[in-house]
Design goal:
Number of helices: 14
Radius of gyration: 22 Å
Oligomer: single chain
Bound molecules: flavin-adenine dinucleotide
């Protein structure tokens, strides 16, 4: 019996949904993405693309396109919040290539997203915009869409609809709002030219590095983007957003006041910010299973394993989900194998993503956000040792 071409419907054209579409289309199957937005795009500025992602993107022939619009960081510096003293330096070049075979990249999210959209379209993936999924019929399987009389039908439906996932709630059969972590993030970009002209800041942009300032209950991450022309800053601090508001424009004075006692270099950097918004950082609770017992529906990405971004692995894990699904679809010959495919998918992916979600929370509470005292002093001592034996 020959191989049957299956039709897969993916809800959500984020980085995870697009990666799954590419993986499954490369395996020779038909893919349709249903995206609620009227046009494609990504929110936010920078994203770190670690070697576990660049390895997949290289296999798909996309690494050179990505590298053209990325910056490769030389070093990863962990700094003290008080004076910016470097506590630990991990060389990223040539460490990542030598150890993992693939580079670590910094890229603008819009560029990353566009490269995946272009590849999906080149592979024949259909992307239907203005297609908001309101519910799933797991038996058929089918997706009910807002303002459409007819449901969307396919052999397998994948919910890749992000943190506030309609698909997750449909699978659970109840409301399951994202879980508060107690942290929020300000996201800011500063033109690198302004930093080059500043006596305290020129050093930060002379060489592409990743800088982390770690302090009580907060940390700040900075790195270059866009050929070195833009400095991307993520500022994590305790969540003070009003209840039910997950994102809002933020007051620059309030942001600067939070860091009044921090490293003068960092304070000078934050004073260059002209506009910012703050975002509540949320996790999803671990699910018992990502798939429906019919074997015709599953979840991926933030819809089932949203994580704090402290390991820079949220999108990387969503892309891995897509790559694993694509690999399994290469093996499948008929729709009746779909339940086994989903069993293997979960067995491979769930333990790994759980480790990432737990590891990210651990990193925030136990390492990045320590208050001054014996634990912080022990951390700083161990970081110096870690520098000699990284990863
Ligand atoms: P999303 O990107 O949320 O995409 C979901 C898509 O589904 C969207 O297009 C949405 O419009 C669509 N959708 C939603 N509901 C519906 C519906 N009902 N019907 C149809 N379509 C729908 N990760 C990294 O790997 N590296 C980093 O450096 C990094 N930094 C981060 C920094 C911050 C401050 C934050 C908050 C996150 C960071 N992440 C990082 C995590 C990363 O952004 C996410 O994990 C990743 O974007 C999740 O991708 P996704 O495709 O699963 O979901």
């Amino acid at each position: 019996m020959g191989k049957t071409q299956l039709h897969v419907g993916i809800i959500g054209a984020g980085l995870g949904g697009l990666a799954a579409a590419i993986g499954i289309a490369r395996a020779g199957h038909k893919v349709t993405i249903l995206e609620q937005a009227p046009q494609l795009g990504e929110v936010g500025a920078g994203i770190q693309v670690p070697p576990n992602s660049t390895r997949i993107l290289a296999r798909w022939g996309l690494l050179s396109a990505l590298e053209k619009v990325s910056v490769r960081p030389n070093n990863f510096h962990l700094r003290s919040y008080k004076d910016g003293k470097i506590l630990s330096t991990q060389p990223m070049i040539p460490y990542c290539e030598e150890t993992y075979g693939y580079p670590y990249l910094h890229i603008h999210r819009a560029d990353y997203h566009q490269i995946l959209v272009d590849e999906a379209v080149r592979l024949g993936v259909a992307i239907q915009l203005d297609s908001f999924a309101t519910g799933i019929d797991f038996e058929r399987p089918a997706v009910h869409l807002r303002n459409r009389a007819e449901p969307f039908l396919a052999d397998l439906i994948i919910g890749a609809d992000g943190l506030k996932s309609v698909c997750r709630e449909a699978l659970l059969g109840r409301s399951d709002p994202p879980h508060l972590t107690g942290d929020l993030a300000y996201r800011v970009t500063v033109p690198a030219d302004l930093m080059k002209a500043h006596p305290l800041l020129a050093e930060l942009v002379a060489v592409p590095n990743i800088n982390y300032w770690m302090g009580p209950d907060s940390h700040v991450v900075g790195y270059l983007l866009k050929g070195g022309n833009l400095y991307n800053i993520v500022i994590v601090s305790p969540d003070n957003l009003p209840e039910l508001v997950n994102q809002q424009k933020a007051d620059l004075k309030e942001m600067n006041d939070l860091f009044a006692n921090w490293d003068p270099q960092l304070r000078a950097l934050l004073l260059l910010c002209t506009d910012t918004s703050k975002w509540r950082l949320q996790n999803s609770r671990e699910m018992i299973s990502w798939s429906h017992p019919t074997g015709r529906f599953t979840l991926l990405g933030d819809a089932c394993h949203a994580t704090l971004p402290y390991l820079a692995q949220g999108a990387a894990q969503a892309v891995e989900d897509g790559a694993v699904l694509g690999h399994l679809f290469e093996k499948i010959e008929h729709a009746h194998q779909l339940p086994d495919l989903l069993t293997i998918y979960e067995a491979v992916r769930k333990p790994r993503t759980t480790r990432v979600v737990q590891g990210s929370s651990h990193l925030g509470q136990k390492i990045f956000h320590l208050h001054d005292g014996p634990r912080q002093m022990e951390r700083d001592r161990q970081l110096v040792d870690f520098q000699h034996d990284p990863f």
